[in-house]
Specification:
Layout lengths: L1 H36 L9 H10 L4 H17 L15 H14 L19 H45 L11 H18 L13 H36 L3 H5 L1 H13 L9 H6 L13 H7 L37 H23 L1
Helix pairs in contact: 1-5, 2-5, 3-5, 5-6
Length: 366
């Protein structure tokens, strides 16, 4: 019985070791992945180095440095009070574990292996050390996600304030203080714009309707699709332009004038981008006169587009040469009188001669 009991105990110990080994492997992979997601680039970013440090536990300075980094990052995005100091060697392992116990208590750690038992011996096993890394990493990741929505409006307010300052500068208003409330700035800008709009002739706005949130989303989708269409067409035009310019470099004269041609061509080419700068605010600021399409032959349009390359020859009035089908009268048909004995007589005579030949044949046969 004693031998069988010892064999069962050995089997149970072996099963426990296998379970601990599988648990350590799972925690190692999970912890390394979490550290990578959090942006950790220290010496323990690889699984092999992380496992070696966790096997040494609190006596390893690299392991304690990683824990200190996680706690400091957690304090920067949360209201954590407890702190952990970096260690200088194995002698500081007990102090480190005491401080880490306070952190676990404040964070309400649910893992009993990190909150119960002897405080100075909790972080001596690899599984507990890896469990600590995973717990701190998940807490840091959750704290960053919770902190993100509160930081975005502040950044958004700063961007709005910067735009309002630029608008005020363009309207000639005094310098706006960064601490001024946005509502007050909006009132000042509205007053100034109303005053200027009464003195400057301005057509009504092109966009006059009030949209619902769902309609704004639809408008944004349309804007995005039109930007993609513009980008595709612009890339095609730029490619055609490049091919056309390359064809000029094939001539013998271009080999001599190649450098001056590039000096003129490249500044213009770099200014041609496939991305559109038109945004939704441009639509809101558009006026009705923007929707008027002028023909390319318009005199006002030609004044802005005429150049030395495009020669426009202005001639006088061209004489009317006619040739319009709708103004030509069709000719009237000419009718002649029917001739006496016309074609019908010849036909009658021809058939008469044929009958006469038939009669002669019949007489000969008889």
């Amino acid at each position: 019985m004693s031998e069988s009991g010892s064999e069962e105990a050995e089997a149970e110990d072996k099963m426990e070791e296998e379970e601990d080994g599988g648990r350590v492997e799972i925690l190692l992979r999970h912890g390394a992945a979490l550290l990578q997601e959090l942006g950790y680039t220290g010496p323990l970013s690889r699984e092999e180095a992380l496992l070696c440090s966790c096997e040494a536990g609190a006596e390893c300075q690299l392991f304690t440095s990683l824990c200190v980094w996680l706690v400091s990052e957690l304090k920067s995005v949360s209201h954590l009070v407890e702190n952990v100091s970096p260690t200088e060697g194995p002698a500081d392992s007990e102090t480190f574990q005491l401080e880490m116990s306070g952190v676990m208590s404040e964070l309400h750690c649910p893992y009993t292996s990190l909150t119960t038992g002897n405080v100075t011996s909790r972080l001596l096993e690899p599984a507990n050390c890896l469990q600590l890394i995973v717990f701190l990493s998940t807490e840091l990741e959750a704290a960053r996600l919770l902190k993100k929505p509160t930081s975005e409006p502040a950044q958004h307010d700063e961007d709005v304030l910067h735009e309002l300052c630029l608008i005020g500068k363009a309207l000639g208003l005094p310098e706006i203080s960064p601490d001024a409330p946005v509502s007050e700035l909006m009132r000042e800008l509205e007053t100034k714009i109303t005053k200027l709009s009464g003195t400057v002739p301005m057509s009504p706005p092109l966009f006059k309707v009030q949209l619902q949130p769902e309609q704004w989303e639809t408008l944004q989708e349309l804007h995005h699709s039109m930007l993609k269409e513009y980008e595709c067409r612009m890339r095609m035009l730029v490619t055609r332009f490049d091919v056309t310019v390359q064809s000029f470099h094939w001539s013998e004269r271009a080999q001599v004038k190649g450098k001056p041609m590039k000096e003129v061509y490249w500044p213009l080419r770099e200014s041609l981008t496939s991305e559109s700068r038109i945004t939704i605010p441009h639509l809101l600021a558009a006026r009705e006169d923007y929707s008027r399409i002028l023909p390319t032959c318009n005199a006002t349009f030609c004044l802005k587009t005429r150049s030395a390359i495009q020669k426009v020859l202005m001639i006088g009035s061209v004489p009317d040469r006619g040739g319009r089908p709708n103004e030509i009268e069709p000719p009237m048909p000419m009718w002649e009188k029917r001739r006496e004995g016309g074609g019908g007589g010849r036909g009658h005579q021809r058939w008469g001669k044929r009958d006469e030949r038939k009669r002669k044949k019949q007489i000969i046969i008889l």
